[in-house]
Amino acid sequence: MTTPPILEVKGLEHRYGAGARSHQAIAAIDFALQPTRAMSIVGPSGAGKTTLLRCLTGLIAPTGGTVSFEGTAIRGIPEGIGVVFQDYSRSLFPWLSVVRNVEFPLRSAGLARTERHRRAREALSMVGLSDAAKKYPWQLSGGMQQRVAIARALVTEPRLLLMDEPFASVDAQTRADLEDLVLAIRADTATSIVVVTHDIDESVYLADTVLVLSGSPSHVMATVAVDLPYPRDQVDTKRLDDYLDTRAKIYDLIHSG
Ligand SMILES: Nc1ncnc2c1ncn2[C@@H]1O[C@H](COP(=O)(O)OP(=O)(O)OP(=O)(O)O)[C@@H](O)[C@H]1O
Hints:
Helix content: 25-40%
Oligomer: single chain
Order of helices and strands: EEEHEEEHHHHEHEHEEH
Shape: globular
Radius of gyration: 18 Å
Protein name: Nitrate ABC transporter ATP-binding protein
Low-confidence stretches: none
Domain ABC transporter: 7-240
Bound molecules: adenosine-5'-triphosphate
Largest sheet: 10 strands, mixed
GO molecular function: ATP binding; ATP hydrolysis activity
Organism: Actinomadura verrucosospora
CATH class of the largest domain: Alpha Beta
Pfam family, one: ABC_tran
Number of helices: 8
CATH superfamily of the largest domain: P-loop containing nucleotide triphosphate hydrolases
């Protein structure tokens, strides 16, 4: 018996605006993600990656097609999905301490304060920030702030984590550390992951499948399987022939498309 997908996208289209000045961002996208798997989405600038991710989170309603999470068409961000955006400086509340930022999504769940605190501290420990709980976001480096944003997405124990260019605003070493953090979270929690990225290396390193989008209006040019063993390592994995071949294949697809 085949397992039903955790995320299924069928005939997705999105057009911004109406009439002569409207813009078709997404022409036709279909894919499915199985539970516990990780998918990267790459494509040229302006391909519609952010538009696609907003449709997956339910933040915008697509003008055509459907997005289903665990078999149900989504409207608004469903329970069970965590989201991490690129711009951590705008997504964290500067007037709340780190631990209060992380527990924020639990407030509407009606949990007692001590339980909210316990879960927030657990999520902070997963991202290696136990010591920063009482600080404020503006007292932390960019990479640490993005760890807080990841902890906040994890605190609800999501079954699917959606990330939009999550590491585009941090330096290369921090980026590598955060990529390894995502791999560790996945190994520990079996959370399914979709990550949108500009970076071909990152797309291969983080995922089991890479969805390569064409330029706007986007469609799926190719679905590339990433056949690399776990655990992955920034040095050893990136030396493997399979890694280099997959990376070259995606590069050619994007630059030919
Ligand atoms: N709110 C909007 N109204 C009108 N057009 C929009 C809107 N948001 C995005 N677009 C257009 O839709 C297309 C896809 O944009 P989107 O931001 O999804 O692409 P992207 O692949 O994420 O780009 P980048 O890689 O540069 O971040 C672009 O041509 C963009 O100008």
